[in-house]
């Protein structure tokens, strides 16, 4: 989308141009409207990143010809169109000398504007393409020149080879590494997997080259020790520390300049970058440590969001392990079993809130994967519907692709909703017995009768009893008791609930009756079973 500034002193014409013309359909976006040349020039000076100016000629304070003259004197790469009610030869001649693309005589129609701006867009596209081709040629030449340097840093930072040999190589490359304290800055393109799917390999290389050139130009005033691009998505800079500023100040300052420059100059590719910085390091020995710190800081954008600028020194939590919460998992699954998706989402938000102050991106992604897997297993068991391993692997891979915690939470909710809907569709195909088993599992904590379950399944109690015995190989009562004993064993193994509390959770209000039934099926009382599990775990 090319950026357009409209300059028109007549209010009626301004309103017509801004409200009646669908500029986006031509490939243009209005970024400003000025009433005269003086106002327009002020806007251009504040924001020189404008592609096209469409201006009237006769206006108060500064006319269109003077405005165009100033644009050309400042060597700004801006295309200019004139829309004027005056067609005198003198104006047209001056406009041609100043390189005006189009001279339109008022009144201008929508069809004229559409024709001229579509043609102009083609010219602008071709101009940018020619620039890109020149940049690509320069990239290839520069790539050959920097191959040795890149190889050294690749082996040092990514492959982490032994330092003695590399220290000698770096000394030959740049002795300043052995003299000055410095910090490492690493910048990377956000949503890189989406970036690789959106552009060809050639365009990806070109974009990385342009980004590296822009960022390198910005760092020149800081007298960088070195700048190197490491495949596939790391733009690395080593900045000497001097002038009394700390590493965090340098990171924020450079990161902001990086982001602003890319917004201003990188028009062909729709990207943002995040920036991570290390603390102070020294000598060749500090290369790996500084690089690791900067990459770790960069990974923290998982919590702070894309387009982040983060320094290692500012992180209060560095490498804490994520602890998986079974309690929160049970709450989420309980709401899903009750088909209360809104409450399940609320519990999910609270679940992830546990990790906004601790853990790493990798750890939180692992926790999310575990949660999704366990939710699927529980619903699979409840609904008696199978989810094949290939489908599960694809769902987990979608989670892995999320770059930030916010994106992960949104994707998690989408996948849970998808799994729920998948089960809903498959449940329509369930037999009456499978529907009855789903109902039993949902209501295991209270008394259940054969008639109640059969009504839920939609058939008579006698027919349900016959079908149940045929499919399950045992009668209704035996099956319910078996499920309750399985649940009791799991609760005994994983919680500290009392025997009375466990009995109530699985539908037994009488403590003695629960103990007797448990011993008949397991061979031990609930207390003996728990003691046996504890002894086994403690050796």
From TrEMBL:
It comes from the Bacteria. The modification 4-aspartylphosphate is found at residue 56. One of its GO terms (molecular function) is sequence-specific DNA binding. Its main location: cytoplasm. Keywords: Coiled coil, Cytoplasm, DNA-binding, Phosphoprotein, Transcription, Transcription regulation, Two-component regulatory system. InterPro entries: CdaR_GGDEF, CheY-like_superfamily, Homeodomain-like_sf, HptR, HTH_AraC, HTH_AraC-typ_CS, Sig_transdc_resp-reg_receiver, Tscrpt_reg_AraC-type_HTH. It is found in: Cytoplasm. Residues 110-137 form a coiled coil. Residues 3-121 form the Response regulatory domain. Residues 434-532 form the HTH araC/xylS-type domain. The keyword NAD does not apply. CDD domains: REC_YesN-like. GO terms for cellular component: cytoplasm. The keyword Magnesium does not apply. One of its GO terms (biological process) is phosphorelay signal transduction system. This is Response regulator. It comes from Paenibacillus piri.
């Amino acid at each position: 989308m090319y950026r357009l500034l409209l300059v028109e002193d007549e209010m009626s014409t301004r309103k017509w141009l801004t409200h009646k013309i669908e500029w986006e359909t031509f490939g243009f976006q209005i970024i400003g409207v000025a009433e005269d040349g003086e106002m327009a020039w002020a806007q251009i000076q504040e924001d020189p990143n404008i592609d096209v100016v469409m201006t009237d000629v006769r206006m108060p304070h500064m006319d269109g010809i003077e405005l165009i003259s100033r644009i050309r004197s400042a060597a700004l790469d801006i295309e200019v169109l004139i829309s004027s009610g005056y067609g005198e030869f003198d104006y047209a001649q001056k406009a041609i000398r100043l390189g005006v693309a189009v001279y339109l005589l008022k009144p201008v129609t929508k069809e004229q504007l559409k024709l001229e701006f579509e043609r102009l867009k083609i010219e602008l596209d071709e101009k940018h393409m020619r620039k890109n081709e020149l940049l690509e040629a320069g990239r290839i030449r520069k790539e050959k020149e920097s191959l040795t340097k890149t190889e050294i840093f690749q082996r040092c930072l990514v492959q982490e080879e032994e330092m003695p040999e590399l220290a000698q190589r770096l000394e030959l490359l740049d002795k300043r590494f052995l003299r000055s304290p410095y910090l490492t800055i690493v910048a990377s393109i956000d949503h890189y997997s989406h970036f690789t799917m959106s552009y060809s390999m050639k365009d990806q290389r070109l974009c990385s080259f342009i980004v590296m050139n822009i960022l390198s130009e910005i760092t020149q005033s800081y007298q960088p020790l070195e700048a190197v691009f490491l495949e596939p998505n790391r733009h690395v800079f080593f900045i000497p520390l001097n002038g009394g500023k700390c590493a965090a100040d340098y990171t924020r300052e450079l990161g902001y300049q990086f982001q602003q420059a890319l917004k201003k100059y990188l028009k062909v590719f729709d990207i943002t970058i995040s920036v991570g910085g290390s603390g102070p390091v020294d000598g060749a020995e500090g290369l790996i440590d500084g690089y690791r710190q900067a990459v770790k800081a960069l990974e923290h954008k998982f919590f702070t969001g894309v387009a982040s600028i983060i320094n290692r020194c500012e992180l209060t939590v560095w490498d804490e392990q994520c602890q998986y919460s079974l309690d929160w998992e049970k709450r989420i699954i309980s709401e899903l079993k009750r088909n209360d998706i809104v409450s399940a989402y609320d519990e999910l938000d609270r679940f992830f809130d546990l990790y906004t102050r601790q853990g790493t991106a990798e750890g939180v992604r692992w926790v999310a994967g575990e949660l999704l897997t366990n939710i699927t297993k529980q619903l699979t068991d409840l609904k008696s519907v199978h989810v094949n391993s290939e489908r599960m692997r694809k769902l987990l891979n979608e989670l892995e692709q999320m770059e930030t915690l916010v994106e992960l939470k949104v994707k998690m909710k989408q996948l849970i909703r998808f799994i729920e809907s998948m089960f809903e569709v498959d449940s329509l195909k369930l037999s009456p017995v499978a529907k009855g088993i789903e109902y039993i599992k949902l209501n295991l904590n209270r008394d259940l009768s054969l008639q109640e379950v059969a009504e839920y399944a939609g058939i008579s109690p006698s027919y349900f009893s016959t079908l149940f015995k045929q499919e399950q190989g045992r009668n209704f009562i035996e099956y319910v008791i078996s499920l309750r004993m399985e649940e009791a064993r799991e609760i005994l193994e994983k919680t500290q609930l009392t025997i009375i509390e466990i009995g109530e959770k699985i539908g037994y209000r009488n403590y003695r009756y629960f103990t007797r039934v448990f011993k008949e099926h397991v061979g031990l009382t609930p207390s003996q079973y728990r003691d046996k599990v504890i002894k086994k775990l403690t050796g």
